[in-house]
Structures are given as C-alpha cells and as structure tokens.
Amino acid sequence: MKIGSIDIPGKTFLAPLAGITNLPFRTLVKECGCAVVCSEMISAKGLFYNSDKTLALLRSCPEERPLSVQIFGADPAIMARAAAEIEVMGVADILDINFGCSVKKVVKQGAGAALMQDMENSRRILQAVRNATTLALTIKIRSGWTPCGSQAFALAETAQQEGVDAVIFHPRTATQGFKGRADRTLIRQLKTKISIPVIGNGDIHTAADALDMLDQTGCDGVMIGRAAMTNPFILSQVESLITHGTCRPIPYTFIFNKMERLIHLYIKHFGEQTACRMLKGKLPWFVKGLPGCSDFRKNLSQIPSTAHALELIHNYEFRLNL
Ligand SMILES: Cc1cc2nc3c(=O)[nH]c(=O)nc-3n(C[C@H](O)[C@H](O)[C@H](O)COP(=O)(O)O)c2cc1C
Asked: Has this prediction a pTM greater than 0.90?
C-alpha cells in the first residue's frame, strides 16, 4: 500500500493514543514489527504558541519511520501553520488530522469530532492544510454524530476531493465514546465510496480479529489502539498472520526482554525520575493474564528506581521459568 508517495511496509498502524504513544513506546512497537506508528495528538495551537510540552511530543528518531504525526485544532490558518512547521522539522512522513476525538476539552474548541458536524470548516481545514504541506495527508474520523455514518461518508469524500491520501475510520459515533461495538459494515460501505486507502480501526483485540476486519470490510490496513497497550506485539502478530498464515504465542522471555527495553527507552527519553513515575502505570500492562501477575503488578505500583523495576522483572521471570 502507498499513502501519498510513502510506501507502507505492511498493513498495521499503531493508533495515536494520547499519553501512551510517546517516542519510547512507538520505538518498541516499531522494533517488534509494526508498519506505521502514530504520535499522540499534537495541538496546532500549542505549536503556534511554541509550547514546550507540545514541542516535546514531536521528538522522533530515524528508527521509527515512517511516522505519522497527528494534529488537532479548529482554525484552518493555525492548522496550516502547524502542518508547514512539522514538515520543516522533518519529523513526519505522514500528517494526520484528528476528526474523531470526542473528549469534551477538544470538542468544546470545535476540533476533533466537532468538525464532523461542521462540513464547511472541515473543508477549509482540509484545503488549508493540503496547501501548506507536501507530506502524505490522512484524516482519522468516527462515524459522526449519528450511527448511519452519513457524516463520515461526506467528510471522507470531501477529503478525497481536497487531496487527502487515506482515511482512518473508527466506526463509532462521537457520543458513543468506547461503548458498544465498532460498526464494521460502515467501513465496508466507505470502501465503496472512495478510492484512496481506508484503514479500519476499532475493537481489534487479537491478530485474528485484524484478519477478520480486513476480510469483512475490504479495508487496506488496520489500526490498533487499546490492544497494543497490553500487548505491544499484536501488530507484529498481525503482520505475521498475514504474511505467513500463522502467529506464534509470545514467549515469556520475549515479553520480559521488551519490558527491559522499554525501561531503557524511557530513561533515554525522559530521564530516570520521570521514567520511574510514568512506567509504574505502564509496565503492569505487559503481564496481564500471566500466572501470578497480581503480586508482580502490585510491586510495580512503586518504582523508586529503574534498577528496582529491572530487579522485579528478573525475579518474576525467574519464578515463571521454575
Ligand atoms: C487512552 C487513549 C488515548 C487516545 N488518544 C487518541 C489520540 O490522541 N488521537 C486519536 O485520534 N485517537 C485517540 N484515541 C482513539 C484511538 O486512536 C482509537 O481510535 C480507539 O481507541 C479505537 O481503537 P481500538 O479499539 O483499537 O482501541 C485514544 C484512545 C485511547 C483509549
């Protein structure tokens, strides 16, 4: 698959997840075999005001490319300026516009999913951003504000007319949050309406689910979010299932190696103290479902040092292998 001029080396996309898909996590997922990783959402306004926090979210490294950077906002001029700035920084291969975020803080500004009921401003944003950058351009959308998907279809068709290169579709309504199930029939319908690639997203929990999504909808690729938080290897499992027809269970040793790797990536990116604070909420995800994981997870609720976390991991691995 190609998105604009970018060759996509597979069918899997790590979803943008605010607070989670930072550079260390993306690097880990990429090293495990995911095709494209996406940044957390970046505020176009934050970039306009040179916010340090926003700029920090734009740190990248060559090993994670191709990288998709997602921006959100409601003002076409500010969105265009963010797009141009990101292109000049040279950190992204794909620029994604967020049309799906339904959290109050974003919708209140007229951004994210709010744009799905404001086609006029959506078109202005698409035109302004398309004129501002030569980066491959994608949009990430929901079904809209009603379950029939008509707003999603209209926006995707408009996006295609305005030169967008692919559409990522999470077929839940803006008011649905994460309740109910993603309606895959809408992805199949969207595939009949536009010719640019469609990436299906929503409720992929296993590699087999991803294959079902591809088969049932005819989508060109799959994007995985929440399942990657507890199993960052799911994207490589999907690639393996597509390429080789099988995917092996992940050995314990591999999981523990990758936990250690994540610790080192966090130290490098955030420094020891911040790494400790952030990792205590994240490392426990990796062992969900493993025998005796609850004690291990409890112990990880305090990480005074990364050396302590590494020791806990070694001890738990040793006990599991007895
Ligand atoms: C913690 C969290 C953070 C998210 N942050 C973003 C974001 O920054 N941008 C975005 O477009 N979607 C965001 N999403 C939505 C996901 O990208 C994805 O569309 C959604 O989780 C459905 O996919 P899944 O069922 O594979 O998780 C977020 C979801 C979660 C759970």
From this structure: yes
- Terminal-to-terminal C-alpha distance of the chain: 45
> Which CA distances in Å does 245 have to 208, 240, 316?
10, 7, 32
Q: Which of 29, 57, 64, 41 is nearest to 224 (CA)?
A: 29
Q: Is 112 in the pocket of ligand 1 (CB under 6 A)?
A: no
The H-or-E segment that residue 254 falls in is helix 252-270
CA 280, distance to chain mean position in Å, is 21
Determine phi and psi for 218, rounding to 5 degrees.
Answer: 75, 15
- 59-79 residue pLDDT tens: 999 999 999 999 999 999 999
Task: Name which residue sits closest to atom 22 of ligand 1, judged by CA.
Answer: 202
Tell me the one-letter amino acid at 284.
Answer: P
197 closest CA partner among 212, 174, 217: 217
Q: Do you know the residue count of the chain?
A: 322
Whether the CB of 171 sits within 6 Å of ligand 1: no
Nearest to 25 by CA among 247, 259, 238, 202: 259
Write the pLDDT tens digit of every residue in 255-286: 999 999 999 999 999 999 999 999 988 898 88
Nearest to 280 by CA among 256, 265, 299: 299
The response to whether residue 232 sits with its C-beta less than 6 Å from ligand 1 reads no
Write the CB contacts of 61 (distance below 8 Å, at least 6 apart in sequence). Answer: 23, 27
